Amino acid sequence: MLVVMQAHATEEQVRGVCQKIESLGYRAHAIPGAERTAIGITGNQGEVEPGSLEEMPGVQEVIRVTKPYKLVSRDIKENNTILRFPGSTATIGGNDLAVIAGPCSIESREQAFAIAERVSRAGAQFFRGGAYKPRTSPYSFQGLGEEALQIMAEIRSQFGLLIVTEAVDNESVDLVEKYADVIQIGARNMQNFSLLKRVGRAKKPVLLKRGLAATLEELLMAAEYVMSEGNYNVVLCERGVRTFADHTRNTLDLSIVPAVQRLSHLPIIVDPSHGTGKRNKVLPLSRAAVAVGADGLIVEVHNQPDKALSDGMQSLFPDQFDELMAQVRQIAPVVGRTVTQTGTQVPVATMNR
Ligand code: PEP
Ligand code: MN
Fold it and tell me: Is residue 128 classed exposed, middle or buried when 0-12, 13-18 and 19+ CB atoms within 10 A define those classes?
């Protein structure tokens, strides 16, 4: 159920409807839109009796939502969600493309700083780096844990980059939430429902990666889990799915971008690194992701990819990231987007080496 408030409804009237919903034993989610506030009702097993709500002051109408996802849907919020960050001009979902770059894993302070310096100079507003790594083998590098989080906090203060890092389980959320600006939920955890609920109670935005074999509806339902707990700052991420194709690590499904945008107000970004698994495919697929209308990119960059402790094969050299930014800057305006002008501009002459 969805209660649509009148355009001129007061905050008090919105509060009154929320209180009424809660008194009936449900949960109320007031989501302000460009013109009016809509209040989503969750926690109901069956149908909510609309009668008493319809009569309340400030209420325009009560509508039944037939889709399984409610809070992620454009039914509740027509205009795009734009994530903003205190103390930063960076956004995700706004007109400006969000660019997140950095190594797969934080391996040392020296490595992380060398990469952060380069991606910041190239114009990324966000720094990625794993502190806790979900690895296929228990014998592979599992991440530096809190030490990595501390290194990234230093990177934020030195370069002004916002930090994106993954929480792999409920135990790691507390620390990740403390240090990060965005909590990443990895592909393998997209349907870890207790983890989704936990980050739904976090105070930081959540970057939710699509599962290896997840449908569009399953991805939206995973986001619904997070939002149903009260965290409305969710970014979706296409990072490739499993198919029979073996020329890439995964098959990057760019068609999900417009499909998501049609159904949901949430931003969606693309990860061409995990999406292809091959360094030489990252640049062309980044161009395609921007062209298809993605709200941003998350790209793995390493200063010494051949020595990387994880995902070296798909990590760009810093020079290649410069080139990626230069090309993205040219494509973005074609689809009505801007790229932040922070960082040093790359001379056009170096672009097509
Ligand atoms: C990562 O971002 O390094 C990662 C492990 O991603 P995914 O969950 O998409 O595999
Ligand atoms: Mn990786």
Answer: buried
Q: Which residues, at least 6 apart from 237, have a Cβ–Cβ distance to it below 8 Å?
A: 207, 208, 209, 210, 268, 269, 270, 271, 298
312 CA from centroid of ligand 2 (Å): 8
For residue 311, how far is its CA from the centre of ligand 2 (angstroms)?
Answer: 5
Q: What's the mean pLDDT when you consider all of the chain?
A: 94
Which pLDDT tens digit goes with each residue over 242-293?
Answer: 999 999 999 999 999 999 999 999 999 999 999 999 999 999 999 999 999 9
For residue 243, what pLDDT is reported? Answer: 97
How deeply is 259 buried, as exposed, middle or buried, from its count of CB atoms within 10 A (0-12, 13-18, 19+)? middle
Q: How far apart are CA 296 and CA 232, in angstroms?
A: 18
**Cβ count within 10 A of residue 159:** 17
How far does residue 341's CA lie from ligand 1's centre (Å)?
Answer: 28
Q: CA-CA distance, 222 to 75, in Å (whole number)?
A: 18
Ligand 1 atom nearest 298 alpha carbon: 2
pLDDT per residue as tens digits for the range 322-339: 999 999 999 999 999 999
pTM of the shown model: 0.94
Atom of ligand 1 nearest to the CA of 189: 8
Residues whose CB falls within 8 Å of the CB of residue 112, separated by 6 or more in sequence, listed in order: 102, 103, 106, 129, 148, 151, 152, 155
